[in-house]
Amino acid sequence: MAREICLRLLTDRARTRQELAQALRRKGIPDDAAATVLERFDEVGLIDDAAFAGQWVRSRHAHRGLARRAIAVELRRKGVADEVAGEALAEVDGESEERRARELVDRKLRSMKVASAEQQTVAGRRLVGMLARKGYGAAVAYRVVREALAEHGADVEELDGAEPPDD
């Protein structure tokens, strides 16, 4: 029974050992039976938290535009060890993170009105908020938004009058 539950879950997507253990617990599988099945799956390579973390980082950064900080939180929730998560997160460097933030801002700006100073201020706040929710630090968010709005003719000094906090 435990084996079938794990195999069914693994057909959808890769999962961490903790995710499978939680699923087995929810289904009422005894801990000793669950441990035996999970150990065997680990031995044959069906469970690999490092491979899962690497795939998760690439997917969440490329498709959802999440920053390292947000992805690290997700990996922790899924039971990936901090050391394993750190190795996977090393794939995303500061340059690619900033480039992805700029892509997100540019895409969002296409649907925003930024003709007046008030619209530019509102757009700036919304864009910084969007990046913050995706895990980008304040310094990166402010810099990327200021650059994007400046390219759209905004007077960046009027946007908020304050320098962003350091990350």
UniProtKB/TrEMBL annotation:
Species of origin: Pseudonocardia yunnanensis
Protein's job: Modulates RecA activity.
Record's subcellular location: Cytoplasm
Family affiliation: Belongs to the RecX family.
Claim: RNA-binding is one of the keywords in the record: no
Protein name: Regulatory protein RecX
PANTHER family in the record: REGULATORY PROTEIN RECX FAMILY PROTEIN
Keyword Transport found: no
